[in-house]
C-alpha cells in the first residue's frame, strides 16, 4: 500500500471512490489488523509498481533522482556529481512489516530492496595533488537496503462529507548491506580509473551516507504524494471498515 508514485497535478479534484480492486481492505477492529494490512500490501505491491493511470499513479520503478553529490574523502579531495539517476528495483521490494497505530495515528513499515542505479557522473578535484576532471556513464548498486518508514496522519472531512486520512509528516531511514560503484572511462586512463573506482568502493559506507538522504527524499516525496491522492479518493470507512 506504500509503494506508489504520483504524477504531480494529475487530479485537480478528487471524487470519492472505492478501493482499487488490487487492494484488500482490513477491518479496523480486527485483532490481526497489522497481519491483514501486510498481506494486502504484499499482494498490491507489484500492481502499484506498474502504475495506475486511472487513479493518477505513475510507476515507481524506475525512480528518478535528478542529482546527488559526493566528496571523497572530503571537500579537499574529489567531488563527484551523479546526474540523471534512475533507480530500479522497487517492483521487487519486499515488505517486512506494516503496522497501524490507530490511536496515535501513526503508520510504520519496514521494507527490503536491492537498488540498481544507472546515471552520469562529473568528477573533479585532486587525487594525490593531481588535478582530476572527467565525466561519463556510471552505476551504483545498493544491496539489501532496509527502509524504515513512518507516516503521521490526521482525520479530516472530505468533500464527500466522509472522514479521510491526511498525511502531514513522514520520515524514512535506511540501512545498506553493501554498496558498489563504477565510473566508466575515467580520464581515459585505465590505471588511474581503477585507482579511483577502488577508492570509491573501499569508502562505500561514506558514499552511501552522502547519497542516502537524496534517495530517501525522492522516495518519501513520491510515496506521500501518491498516498495523499489515494486517501483523498478512499474514505476511512472504505479503507478500514468496522
TrEMBL record:
It comes from Arctia plantaginis (Wood tiger moth). Residues 1-16 form the signal peptide. The keyword Signal applies. This is Uncharacterized protein. InterPro entries: Haemolymph_juvenile_hormone-bd (IPR010562), To_sf (IPR038606). Belongs to the TO family. Keywords: Biological rhythms, Signal. GO terms for biological process: circadian rhythm. GO terms for cellular component: extracellular space. It comes from the Eukaryota.
Amino acid at each position: 500500500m506504500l509503494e506508489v508514485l504520483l504524477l504531480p497535478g494529475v487530479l485537480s479534484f478528487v471524487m470519492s471512490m472505492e478501493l482499487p480492486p488490487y487492494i484488500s481492505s482490513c477491518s479496523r477492529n480486527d485483532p490481526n489488523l497489522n497481519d491483514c494490512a501486510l498481506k494486502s500490501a504484499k499482494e498490491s505491491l507489484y500492481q502499484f509498481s506498474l502504475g495506475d493511470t486511472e487513479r493518477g499513479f505513475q510507476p515507481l520503478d524506475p525512480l528518478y533522482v535528478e542529482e546527488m553529490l559526493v566528496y571523497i574523502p572530503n571537500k579537499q579531495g574529489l567531488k563527484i556529481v551523479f546526474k540523471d539517476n534512475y533507480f530500479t528495483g522497487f517492483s521487487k521490494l519486499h515488505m517486512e512489516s506494516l503496522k497501524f497505530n490507530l490511536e496515535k495515528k501513526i503508520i510504520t513499515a519496514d521494507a527490503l530492496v536491492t537498488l540498481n542505479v544507472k546515471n552520469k557522473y562529473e568528477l573533479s578535484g585532486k587525487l594525490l595533488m593531481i588535478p582530476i576532471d572527467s565525466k561519463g556513464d556510471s552505476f551504483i548498486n545498493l544491496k539489501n537496503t532496509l527502509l524504515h518508514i513512518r507516516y503521521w496522519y490526521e482525520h479530516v472531512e472530505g468533500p464527500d462529507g466522509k472522514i479521510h486520512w491526511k498525511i502531514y509528516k513522514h520520515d524514512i531511514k535506511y540501512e545498506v548491506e553493501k554498496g558498489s560503484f563504477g565510473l566508466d572511462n575515467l580520464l581515459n586512463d585505465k590505471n588511474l580509473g581503477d585507482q579511483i573506482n577502488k577508492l570509491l568502493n573501499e569508502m562505500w559506507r561514506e558514499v552511501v551516507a552522502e547519497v542516502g538522504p537524496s534517495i530517501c527524499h525522492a522516495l518519501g516525496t513520491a510515496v506521500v504524494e501518491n498516498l495523499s491522492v489515494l486517501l483523498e479518493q478512499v474514505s476511512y470507512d472504505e479503507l478500514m471498515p468496522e
